[in-house]
Design goal:
Shape of chain A: globular
CATH architecture of chain A: Orthogonal Bundle
Number of helices of chain A: 16
Helix content of chain A: over 70%
Structural class of chain A: mainly alpha
Strand content of chain A: under 5%
Number of strands of chain A: 0
CATH class of chain A: Mainly Alpha
Oligomer: homodimer
CATH superfamily of chain A: Farnesyl Diphosphate Synthase
Largest sheet of chain A: none
Chain lengths: 320, 320
């Protein structure tokens, strides 16, 4: 994906340097863990979207920089907090956690990164940026909690699933696109279209992630295949299979099991594949991609407009 | 303490009602856990300080209400996150956690409460309130992380201890006093004095807590005595004893032990008491109380001025 960002490469390098600067703290433990976390990488997708959004306005890196850095800090904070494990929940599914640090430090580091993002956002007081991100951060938590309360709930609907992934993934990507434009004084018509673009791309991105969880090679994904099924997280392919597979009772039984063997996980994935759950999910992702690209059509023909379309296509391209 | 708040009783009731309103969420699990947390009580010290601070300005409840609610949400978020336990750390000391929820939910609930506070603080855009609280929240995390990295560090100095408790406790109380005044348009001379008052009271409050951890009856404290010693948290009485006790080597040995028996904890407390560690700590707390009250002298003689002095005295009164 990184090749797509050529137009903002030098700006992304500034973001990267600033990220490392921001997490320096008086306490070496804090600096070391936060720096390690940053250097562990990441696609910097949210900063990139904010920079690209900014290109639809009167772009200056200094206008977007605090926002771009803040967005990545917020994203990283949610990742670290997502790594906090409930011992009562590892019973369900064999969750493997890259436990570099313990739960307690992860919690505080996440809070610290989030707090640093707030300091950066102070420079946008009086704009929509702080309230939009406040609202987004609350809704992201709602999504996380809902994912826990809805795990192993095989009665959940498509609507439940979309509600959840919108909060979990789409809203922050959506905000990244919109707020980058706002930071560079783009007019409402533009930043609202970018917000919708980001939402659709974010939805497609999460659906694709949920598909990849069942199809990717383990080495590429960096984690064991079928992680969602192991944890009882009901994703789109599962919802489809529960509604459409001839083996409904069997897959229901497999999904509901608290401790699944590898064979049981593979069997569940196999049933989902056989009934067309992955193709269906892929089609839904593709529909979001189309909607995303359509949102861009009325926008001014700045060079990054094509980049945003290519990024959208790339997200669906990585489907299988 | 609650009797001291008579002048703001009705306002505190409004804060209480608003707190319950704010945590209502679409997901019952989220609403239930957050509501349970609220109803579990707490002294609402930070909202009270913000209301009292507001009385030094042109007080209107609607001006302070979002701030007062936000302060309690931030405080609660830190409490919930502080309850997240690292299994690797329960090895050290017999930490008892009121584990109503697991780690994962605690993390997300904390984030949710914090996020809700940000939404409330949006109404203060353009004032010092959001940046001061952003800065405070980062420093609070620094304090928490530092407490972890400094645990079992018997070489730490008084300076280390004050650095830590300032971040852990004093800064948010300090901000509560100051920002309540700012929300009600009190002049800088006033809100800066209140900030210093809050800092001194907060320092005394935490020192007193650290003393009570060694002296209070278990039923009153609601947790086993000597919790800090069990967890390797080096507090003021310990630092004093390490520097002044004739039994230095023995207490050093006891403090450094990872798994302490009840007898060993009591023995350590007994050495600390014998060498005057509690009286010393109490004198330091008392000095902060005096400084806090002095800060109030130049301020206008509004009725709550005496209340703030009484609150300061109450904090030192509960020393033994």
């Amino acid at each position: 994906m990184i090749k797509l960002f050529d137009e903002i490469r030098s700006d992304l390098e500034i973001v990267e340097a600033e990220l490392l600067e921001v997490v320096k703290a008086p306490d070496p433990l804090l600096t070391d863990t936060a720096t390690h976390l940053l250097k562990a990488g990441g696609k910097r997708l949210r900063p990139a979207f904010s920079l690209l959004g900014g290109k639809f306005g009167d772009f200056e890196i200094k206008k977007v920089l605090p926002l771009a850095v803040a967005l990545e800090l917020i994203h990283m904070a949610t990742l670290v907090h997502d790594d906090v494990v409930d011992s009562a929940m590892t019973r369900r599914g064999v969750r493997t956690v890259k436990a570099m640090w313990g739960n307690k430090i992860s919690t505080h580091i996440g809070d610290y990164l989030f707090g640093q993002s707030l300091i950066l956002l102070s420079s946008y007081q009086g704009t929509m940026i702080p309230p939009v991100l406040a609202d987004t951060s609350v809704k992201m938590c709602e999504g996380e909690i809902y994912q826990i309360s809805a795990s192993y709930d095989t009665d959940q609907t498509l609507r439940d699933y979309f509600y959840r992934i919108k909060r979990k993934t789409a809203l922050l990507i959506s905000a990244s696109c919109q707020l980058g434009a706002i930071a560079c004084d783009a007019p409402p018509k533009t930043h609202l279209a970018l917000r919708r673009y980001g939402n659709h791309v974010g939805m497609a991105f999460q659906i694709t992630d949920d598909i990849l969880d069942m199809t990717a090679e383990q080495t590429r994904l960096g984690k064991p295949i079928g992680g969602d099924i192991r944890q009882g997280i009901i994703t789109l392919p599962v919802i489809y299979a529960l509604a459409n597979s001839a083996d409904r009772d069997h897959i229901l039984h497999l999904i509901n099991k608290e401790n699944k063997s590898n064979e049981e996980v593979f069997e569940a994935i196999s049933i989902i594949k056989d009934c067309g759950g992955l193709e269906y999910s892929s089609r839904i992702a593709q529909r979001y991609i189309s909607k995303a690209k359509q949102e861009l059509n009325p926008l001014p023909d700045v060079p990054v407009k094509e980049t945003l379309k290519t990024i959208a296509d790339f997200i669906s391209f990585r489907n299988f």
